[in-house]
Amino acid sequence: MENYIANVEAQMRKGILELCILNIIASEVEIYPSEIIARLKESKLIVVEGTLYPLLTRLKNQGLLSYQWVESPSGPPRKYYSLTEAGRACLDELNKTWNELIFAVKQTIKKSKRNEENSNS
Fold first, then answer.
1. In 32-55, which positions are buried (b, 16+ CB within 10 angstroms) versus exposed (e)?
2. Is 7 helix (H, G, I), strand (E, B) or coil?
3. Ordered DSSP codes for 98-118
4. Which residues contact 66 (CB under 8 A, 6 or more apart)?
């Protein structure tokens, strides 16, 4: 049972990871990947660089992100990401879908609790 729960939790987190990353990027004019990882960790969505970079590349290839190289005073230039217009439109749709899902899940949980309370009466 513990393995099942851990697997479902991992799948749920993986499913919303892109939504969270796009929202984090949208909250800034531009953002460096280590800042994205720090924000995800603050939100208890632990992600390693090996997961983030391929995801950022995929989002860029979809036309949702752009990046620019910025010189760093302490090392090589850094890639800073931002949302494109298509990325903003996509994020609006994804956030709408997310809110609809939240509502649907809450409705299901309410009905489940009501049924449980009725069967215990």
1. bbeebbebbeeeebebeeeebeeb
2. helix
3. HHHHHHHHHHHHHHHHHHHHH
4. 60, 81, 82, 83, 84
Amino acid identity of residue 81, one-letter, is Y
pLDDT (tens digit per residue) in 12-25: 888 899 999 999 99
pTM for this entry: 0.85
| CATH class as words, domain 2-120 | mainly alpha
pLDDT-based confidence at 29, cuts 50/70/90? very high
Question: What residue segments make up the domains of the chain, in order of their start?
Answer: 2-120
